[in-house]
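Comment thread on ticket #2218

A.B. wrote:
> Attaching the input chain for the structure job we discussed in standup.
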Amino acid sequence: MADRVAGVRLAPYTTLRVGGAARAFVEAHTGEELVELVAEADRAGEPVLVLGGGSNLVVSDEGFDGLVVRVSSRGVDVRDEGSRVVVTAQAGEDWDALVARAVAEGWSGVECLSGVPGLVGSTPIQNVGAYGQDVSQTVVGVRAYDRRAGEVLDLDAEQCGFAYRHSAFKDDLARYVVVSVTYALEKSEKSGPVAYKELAAKLGVEIGGRVALHEARTAVLHLRRGKGMVLDASDPDTCSAGSFFTNPVLDGPEAAELERRAPGFPRWDTPAGAVKVPAAWLIEHAGFPKGYRRGPARISTKHTLALTNPGGLGVTGFPGDPEALGSMSMPAPFDGPATAADLLALAREVKEGVEAKFGVTLVNEPVMVGLRL
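C.D. wrote:
> Ran it. Output below, let me know if you need it in another format.
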């Protein structure tokens, strides 16, 4: 088993490049090692933070007073079942690399999730989704260590409790450690039905149309790059945790109140009768445009939902490349990196501004470690 290291800075392991040091840090190179490390710490009463790709994480400036277990397990198993393939990937596999392989192999169902940063293990926790697809459409099973029961469980999709950007795992983040995820993908050179208006327009097809897998991937990557949502060591806007807020889902009275305050607001009516509202629209119309700054923290110049740490490029590399610490020049005009406190101050200003103007409470999407919005 790998040795522990004391005092490792966590900022280089996150895409926001914020966060203090871990009291102890260790890498788990297999699923078995991951379970063993977490179980051993639990028996000793030691706090544990399981760290994946760091793309959906905000760590406090004080760091983590416990053991950080970085998930580095690798391995992909593919089982051919005629019209589909069943793919089981270890939690430490890079998500976009798996999507790229699916596109190359002719496995349909995750192509619209191209460019999403992070590891496989995080996908069921957040029910990762983009451009009309989410992983709940393809996940058929998750192997997870239940820290409360002290056993490894094999959960089917129904037991995962998937909902919009949510799952049973997210209900209690400290309980489960994802070991591997199994996806069922259609054997087809065509994408799934295109369900997102912006992507359909980019591809020149009607909603519900299908295109070649590589065309879907290329279009999604182009759209994401235009919003600063593909990791790029030369682009300060990608020093973010992606969308910082989820799109609010309002019940009838809440939607009526918003209609009173903002007649004709953009909306999606859900089959259950709720109303989903674009958080980006609320933020912009509450007075927070792209590029809005509070100290060294900034709303992305490309995407209103992303809060960024532009100066972070000057002091860290990307997750998985901590050796790049200090190797990049500081991008002007930023004098230095933001702290977690700076990011949270900007997030609170945006949240309070939206609530004051529209009566809608925004909910953060990234996981907070030692912080509360």
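A.B. wrote:
> Thanks. Noting for the ticket: The mean pLDDT is 92.
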